[in-house]
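Let us work through a complete example step by step.
Step 1: write down the sequence.
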Amino acid sequence: MPQVTFRFYAELNDFLPLQRGRDVAYRFARRASVKDAIEALGVPHTEVDLILVNGVSVDFGYRIQPGDRISVYPTFESIDITPLVRLRPHPLREPRFVLDVHLGKLATYLRLLGFDCLYTNDAHDGDLARISSQESRILLTRDRGLLKRGVVSHGYFVRAIEPLAQTIEVARRFDLFDRVQPFHRCVRCNGLVTPVPKATVLDQLLPKTRLYFDEFHRCETCGRVYWRGSHYERMQRIVDTVQAARPSDG
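Step 2: predict the structure and record it as tokens.
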């Protein structure tokens, strides 16, 4: 049976714990694309940004040949590889996200930072993949099988378990720090939040809130009202923690 040799680099080894940092032999019985082979080994195609076959850059459609040596790389953070073949159809100018049902708290935190995030706790995998494709949204998930769907071109497998750590991980992966606009989106529904006169929201306020606060914002979609109470201080600490995790220039 024909065989090729793969070597996966950096965080792609997260998907290959038993072969981390080693050559991986792959046998195939028919003509297979390099994309099919990569995913058969357990690595979602959305995690891959460069493939070299015998030292030459190829795209996902390349048909593997017996004896090929294939190097597979994740996103490069500090090296410009634009002269080489890139596997995404095109970069997304504005980072917008759709999240699977297990990442509700991450969706809340990303909305808090001002990012457009679609999330419902009853979405089906097919719907998430379709939304990601049709609306040019980055699909965030902890389900590698979901990222292997062919329709998904922009996606990311979230490694961290704790929501704040997940938020920092996503901010670093997509270099979101300069795009943060805290408190511009409703954390409940994803709508935009804008200032409103106090008089227009009086009937939605509790007596002590009416007495002690004068500046209010309201979601344009669901009507939820925000003010700088104790909840604001708690959310500001989350924003500060994420911004403090910005990688240094070095």
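Step 3: interpret the result. The chain has a mean pLDDT of 92.
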